Amino acid sequence: MTTTLEPTAPAEDTQRPAIGSDRMRVDAPLKVTGTAPYAYEQPVEEPTYLVPLVSTIARGRITRIDDSAARALPGVHLVLTHDNAPRIRVRTDGALTILQSPEVHHRGELVGAVVADSPHVAREAAGLVRIEYAEEPAELGFAIDHPESFEPRRVNAFKHGSYERGDVDEGLRDGVLVEADYTTPMEFHSPIEPHAVTAIWHDASAVNPRAIRLTLFDTNQGPGLLGTLLGPVLGLLPGQLEVISPYVGGSFGTKGWPQPHLVLVSMAARLLPGRPVKFAMTRQQMFRSTGHRPASAQRIRLSADAEGRLIAVDHQSWAPTARTKTFVEQTVSATRMMYDVPHLRTIHHAVRQDAAPGMFMRAPGEFTGMFALETALDELAVATGVDPVELRIRNEPEWDPETGKPFSTRNLVACLRKGADRFDWADRTPPGQHRDGEWQVGLGMASATYPNQHFVPNRAGIRYSGGRWSVEIQASDIGTGAWTILPQIAADTLGVPVELVDADIGRTGLPWAIMAGGSVGTYDWGDAVVAAATKFHRKHGDSPEDGAYETATGRLPRGARGYSRHSFGAHFAEVRVSTVTGEVRVDRMLGVFAAGRIINPRTARSQLIGGMTMGLSAALHEEGHLDERFGHVVNGDLAGYHVAAHADVVGLEAITVDEHDPWFGRTGAKGIGELGIVGAPAAIGNAIFNATGVRLRDLPFTPDRLFAAWEPPPSG
Questions:
Q1: Catalytic pick from 139, 366, 623, 674?
Q2: Is residue 41 flagged as an active site residue?
Q3: Looking at the predicted structure, is the pLDDT value of residue 3 above 60?
Q4: Mean pLDDT, to the nearest integer, of 637-666?
Q5: What is the pTM of this model?
């Protein structure tokens, strides 16, 4: 794989030696030598090991549990079920309310656990527990125009469910019309480190409830959120829950919200005072109850004049949601602001299922919706005869069409033009005309965007001790580079060499910070670090006394709410399609991104290339299959659920355009963690059309789908 990324230049008077430098990850040596302590590897005395019991039906109730054989097995300490589980009094999240009744809400739901001296004994004992059910008919499956669909008021906690401007029905009567349905499957996060936790109750039998304390060594995207959501479920005040998460082996969203297993392990530990309880999920368990990207079915109708200028767009999405917890991606939200459309309607529809809840997954909503929108725009380009790059430029808005606000920075056109020039877009041939033996070759492109989801005031601290400075903040590094870039930001503000600045992150007790999600980490945390370092330097100068310490809160820049804040980019892909097997190979991809000030080109490249790779994987391989008869994921492991391998990823390149956006925060940076995945599958699908003349509207682009749409079948 070849990768390059051009550093982004900040404003002239803000250039410092650390920011913008290509700094090696400071945590890399620990990780590659296997000495970084992850959640399951934390050393504790006399640990016990938990294996969960899960439901084997999709809906119904437990009528009988026979755990006698399990309890009789030597080494077993506890069989936990709804009969003996601690009571939950504060319900902060429906999915966390487990073991409170015999009711079963989805297949794979946690209905109990066995805890033993070793994982082997716990596994054997779990297999001896006999659970009987009274099964009820389950409702599974969904489709466009589902009769029981409803419109949620809000989606993904941030966006309104429906939005309309102009007269869409009238606008669709004019010009060139494109109308099509698009689908995306359920997808699974599959980080290299599965969910894992070590739980320890301290003074669990104390007379004074305030003496009780719980320590969780947990793999998560932010320790602070667990205190907010998990603590009340367990009856704990914020100061009674200690969360330690220094190293996290990937997430993509699955570790961004407390999952039910944390309640299960914490309950077990509470019933075993003084004995730590360890639990690490198997790969199969990761497909049951830790979230996933919900499937979607989308319908787009759009009209444009003969020059490709949009007149009206109607973009609607249908998606499943669980009965225990409503989660709906903001699938159609990007359509509201992406292009200059006078008449627009976007609606989210949800359908309740007896299935496990969905969860944030890298670029939730934008990934799903931009696949459909950018494919539809390619279809419009074909219908009008306008070049796909030029068509997007012709629909560039002067301001945010949804809010009417000016964009803080919007360099999409620069990304499109730079990418087209660098990718030799001008040499693109008409569909189906470039052939190399059995292979048909084509080029495709798509735009990318990701919003400033929110700005929550974060707090950071700067400490000086033993001749070194330390950045203290509850930030979590899930592989994004926080260990590395936060000292870079602090070093520039303090005016000291970055080699003298350390990071202390990933645990409660430090200044509060938002979780690593929504691409907010660098600019949210970074703003707090700048505030703390500025205050520290103002009070202590260049020669602080040992032990000097200051904290400060980062805040949204004054006037920032008057701007629409987004990152933008463009993907270009070259594919070859076998006329013999229908196999699709991506020969090269180029991503051009306007992502604000680049703090560290190395970690930025990792994020952008990683997002593009994940988009390629979704385009060619990833597809979860839910059995609508029984409610289980048929291909619930990495043998059946395919992700991209090294051989799939050949030539990926990521570059940036010069940009500095002060309205995201004082660093001038934007979010990039999710930008790289948005639009990538559409670019590949559009390239497949250019290669073959076959339009694929359903992810992933597998050989069977290609041949089903290929009429007549090509001759090899």
A1: 674
A2: no
A3: no
A4: 94
A5: 0.94
